[in-house]
Design brief:
- There is one protein chain.
- The protein folds into 2 domains: 81 residues, no CATH class; 76 residues.
- It is elongated and about 65 Å long.
- The model has no long low-confidence stretch (mean pLDDT 87).
- Strands 4-5-6-7 form a 4-stranded antiparallel sheet, covered by helices on one side. The protein has a 3-stranded antiparallel sheet with strand order 2-1-3, covered by helices on one side.
- It is 38% helix and 22% strand.
- The longest helix has 26 residues.
- It is α+β, with helices and mostly antiparallel strands and 174 residues long.
- The chain has 4 helices and 7 strands; from the N terminus they run αβββααββββα.
């Protein structure tokens, strides 16, 4: 079974969090007094826990110190929570809005007279999901459901392609 883009991102996030937690646990056991913080590298799903980032490309993900009393699993879940709640820019950005709209229109033309779903990423890397029939966008979502910045909207029915594209431009800028 093929994984969706969101499932792939989740798998990548959990894998990176697990590897980082394992590395942290081994190093923290050697020196429980060393203060350690969570760091991330923008544009990549890569984390590091240490006193400092690995180089100038790494950014501190949270001002909170990782407690030496935490378990490996606790740290793994904490990393995922920090990445989601703080909306860390760890994913590559998506296409510009005009390209996303062009891809959507190509799919709309290929599915004339039937319902279809469109998936992609916004310019800032948030997932986009759209359910549509012709020029009617019944459901449009951007971001992860329940996460900060999540937007769910719908477009007007029986509109021109120009009006639909105008709605999409406005929606993608939210």
């Amino acid at each position: 079974m093929m994984m969706t883009a969101t499932e792939k991102r989740e798998s990548e996030l959990w894998g990176a969090a697990d590897a980082t937690a394992g590395d942290w646990f081994r190093r923290q056991c050697r020196d429980v007094l060393e203060p350690m913080f969570l760091w991330f590298k923008p544009g990549t799903v890569a984390f590091w826990i240490g006193a400092d980032g690995l180089n100038e490309d790494w950014r501190k993900a949270s001002p909170l110190q990782v407690s030496p009393a935490w378990t490996r699993d606790r740290v793994k879940f904490w990393i995922v929570d920090i990445a989601r709640v703080n909306r860390l820019p760890i994913y590559s950005p998506g296409k510009p809005a005009r390209e996303t709209i062009a891809d959507f229109n190509a799919m709309r033309k290929a599915n004339k007279g039937s319902w279809f779903t469109f998936r992609g990423n916004s310019e800032d890397g948030r997932p986009i999901a759209i359910k549509a029939y012709g020029t009617w966008i019944q459901i449009a979502e951007i971001g992860e459901s329940g996460a900060p910045g999540f937007v769910r909207d719908c477009g007007p029915m029986d509109v021109s392609v120009g009006a639909m594209n105008s709605f999409l431009r406005s929606f993608l800028s939210s």
